[in-house]
């Protein structure tokens, strides 16, 4: 079991896409989702972890509750979803709110409702299709061991490259670690 601190960016059922700006340390409105799309869960990030897309590592937080953007909470990792977004690795850790006793029974990915996992996969596979079909690709879900490894790797990336410009970071990483940008 691994607990992490997550800052909520987007609340469950929101049409508003917020984005954390590392330079200003503010959560800003990025855009409004098109059509009937709404976020299927609370969506946050790990401030001390840099994913291969040059942004903080994303976390999908399973909970019946809706958390406001900017809220910090304790989350228990249960797995991850492997995703490529426009050619960039964009892993989504999957966690549950660790301080909700109603979720104590969820200790691994397989304990989550299949409907939840299906809704997450469908949403992230299609919510950007208006830009072009298949802009996002999901190869599937991974368990806790993978999620912990990804978390640790991304904490190291933030320590080494957190001050680097996003485009410069991605270009450098694609040259040095091309395997991280394909399935």
From TrEMBL:
Its main location: cytoplasm. Mg(2+) 1 binds at residues 53, 58, 90. It catalyses: diphosphate + H2O = 2 phosphate + H(+). CDD domains: pyrophosphatase. Keywords: Cytoplasm, Hydrolase, Magnesium, Metal-binding, Plasmid. Mg(2+) 2 binds at residue 58. Its cofactor is Mg(2+). It holds the Pfam family Pyrophosphatase. Homohexamer. Belongs to the PPase family. Catalyzes the hydrolysis of inorganic pyrophosphate (PPi) forming two phosphate ions. This is Inorganic pyrophosphatase. It comes from Mycoplasmopsis cynos. The gene is ppa.
């Amino acid at each position: 079991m691994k607990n992490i601190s997550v800052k909520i960016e987007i609340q469950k059922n929101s049409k508003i896409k917020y984005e954390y700006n590392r330079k200003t340390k503010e959560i800003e409105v990025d855009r409004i989702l098109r059509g009937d799309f709404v976020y299927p869960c609370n969506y946050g990030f790990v401030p001390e972890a840099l994913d291969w897309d040059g942004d903080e590592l994303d976390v999908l937080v399973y909970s019946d509750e809706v958390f406001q953007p900017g809220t910090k909470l304790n989350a228990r990792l249960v797995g991850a979803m492997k995703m490529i977004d426009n050619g960039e690795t964009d892993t989504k850790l999957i966690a549950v709110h660790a301080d909700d006793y109603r979720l104590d029974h969820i200790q691994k990915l397989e304990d989550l409702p299949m409907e939840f996992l299906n809704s997450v996969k469908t949403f992230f596979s299609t919510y950007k299709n208006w830009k072009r079909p298949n802009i996002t690709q999901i190869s599937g879900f991974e368990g806790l061991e993978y999620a912990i490894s990804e978390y640790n790797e991304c904490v190291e990336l933030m320590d080494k490259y957190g001050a680097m410009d996003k485009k410069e970071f991605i270009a450098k990483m694609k040259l040095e670690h091309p395997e991280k940008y394909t399935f």
